[in-house]
Amino acid sequence: MNKIFKNSFKKALVDILKSLPMIFGVVFLISLANSIIPKEFYLKIFQNNFLIDSFIGSFIGSISFGTPMTSYILGGELLSQGVSLIAVTAFLVSWVTVGLIQFPAEAVMLGKKFAITRNLLSFIFAIIVAILTVLIWSIF
Amino acid sequence: MKKTEKSRFSLYFLFSMIFIYSILFFINNSLFISSFNFLIKILMQIYWVFILVFVLMGFSNYFLTSGRIKEFLSKKPGKRSWFFSVLFGILSMGPIYMWYPFLADLKEKGMRDGLIACFLYNRAVKIPLLPLMFFYFGIKYVFILSFVMIFASIIQGFILEKIVGDKK
Predict the structure, then answer these.
(1) Which domain holds residue A56?
(2) How many domains, in total, are found in chain A?
(3) Distances from the Cα of B106 to the Cαs of A75, A110, A126, B44, B153, in angstroms?
(4) Which of A9, A118, B119, B120 has the smallest C-beta neighbourhood within 10 Å, fewest atoms?
């Protein structure tokens, strides 16, 4: 039992260490982007239209990949740059639920029709979830 | 992308960033300093969250194995299976592609496509990562998002079954 417990934490440590290069890389990139890109740039892409913003957020999240940790850091920084919460939410949700990079593996293991349908639905649901979340959030 | 390719890509990505910063140090020192200061600021803000995430991941690995999940999902039909798909989707750890063989095996044993989709969708709600989410987005937002996502996962599962035509 003690050995299993140790191995569980060893695995956790290995998983975190493995994700560190990507996380550090993203933090490096965010810091550089923060210095180069003016805040107005983000405000130009995201136009404070809840449908367009959530669509763009969902699209960017869908084509991005990495651990959810990376998406939280990236999303948090986008938020501080003035990007709307709806866009950031759609980005966070689609980052994890839409798997374009893993699509070939998913199609082989679980079926092509399943993989296509699931990823398309996840893209649409990222928009719906973002709108609903922010709507409820603003009420409470 | 295979696991080794992904790790290699992550390393290449990090080294590319270090290389860019090294060049900046010589050609645009002020940009280097402002970027580096911002980098340190972010790292100082989030380092303690990683320690918390590590502890939660350790406990999650200990209490939840794929064998235990399999036992539940392949034996509980009906409405309860939706509940277990949501629960195990949330509790499951590791990269998504590690779970495909496991889910393919469950599918062969009769698990419905909607439940698989529901399981995969709920992998977005990660308990060990909640501290990091709280830090960036606040507790209220994270709870609302988690509940909306759980609800959405079930709806998505039903819609997917209608489209794919799987009603086991």
Answers:
(1) 2-139
(2) 1
(3) 34, 10, 26, 43, 18
(4) A9
